[in-house]
Amino acid sequence: MEFSTEDKGSYTEVSATGRLNMVAAPRLREIVGDVVSAGGKRIVVNLAGTSFMDSSGLGALIGCLKLARQSGGDLRIAAAQPQVTMVLELTSMHRVLTPHRTPEEAFAGE
Amino acid sequence: MTVAPQVRRALVVEDDVDIRGLLVQVLTREGFEVSEAATAREGLEKARAGADLITLDLNLPDGDGVEVCREVRTFSDAYILMITARTDEIERLTGLETGADDYISKPFSPRELVARIKSLFRRQSRQAEADVVNADDRLRAAEVQQNLLPRDQLTLEDYELAGRFRPSRSVGGDFYDWYGTRDGLHLTVADAMGKGMGAALIAATVRATMRSVAAQPSIETAFATAARATEADLDQNDSFVTLFHGRLHAATGTVSYVDAGHGLALHVAADGGVTRLPSAGPPVGAWPDQTWSPGTAILQPGDSLAIVSDGLMDIYETVAQFTDAVAGVVTAMGSADAACAALLALADVPEVADDVTVVVLRRFPI
Predict the structure, then answer these.
(1) pTM
(2) ipTM for the complex shown
């Protein structure tokens, strides 16, 4: 899995490309941790390139959301592909991690 | 467990036909049973079949060798030798956590390759003693986990019940449990986040906690009590567990259930019609301050309840496809046990890298 981080002005976008599984999960936590430590409050994880997510990947997203909230910020997800959406819905986690259509829309109007 | 002298298996993942041929030749001469793959996809598939040594080309037509290497590491302890076309790549690679054991650059001489492989396996034999202890531990842990599964055939008039659990490693994060009650039975299917030993420890804790609330008459209260008791431990470990807990009242066929983020329990009617029982909230430990409302399903004579873990989902694109496939198997099979065996067989493909659990409760037709 490849990650990239980009400052978009009103939020920081973290793009995750590949399979978000047990191997990639700790790296996502690390990357989002770095953004939060650097003072990033609004984070959007762009999942357009995430073809697969397992329970460890979901755990990482939840951990990142908790981390962002604890530091007074928020984390949202965008452009989730069908398999990722399916995992979120099966686990009812879409109520907490609601996928937004595009990264731009995630914090729009706030 | 002792390491018996057996045929060592090597896998060559390389798209260049000539280099692949050379590698196969060298490794065969070194006494390996060699299989080969020309693409990342094929390589992963064959790696899942098992290998002691994998040579992995960095530049494959359909993927990055580093990614393949990381992926292989999620399920295999094979010695991985990465092969790159450029010497300067090695410096970059050693800085990354690829999971590879050694690197070699092209062009390499067969003698250099043999020397590397011999040194890899020398290192392995030095580690062998420690490995034997670890392997003993793993074997024992696997035994303990299997023994925590319900072994008694539950004899309940008009019903049959069967379950199967196949961990992706020696132990796993799934479990199922059941026990008889005065008017029927309780059953639980759960899946702790992740795989391996950590997930297995969580699973064992959750099993014990769920059993501890068996005497509470209200399923909602019982579940909430168990969830509260587990949440702190789960949070401490950045983990969560999906849970299906059901209680059967045998005389009426009523199953009260609570589903926390599991979402893969199916009510298969005698005529093959199927209803998926949706989850009532997130997995336990995933998010604070959750409550889960119980649901009800009524098993008429000939109906079945099939609860599957998400490992089997790996082979289906959509929940609808999964639902139809499971319902088809449950309807076609003559017994709960045969249905479980057939469902586990479905998961016996390389795409399924996760633990797999199936439980089937069937009410006999009149």
Answers:
(1) 0.75
(2) 0.93
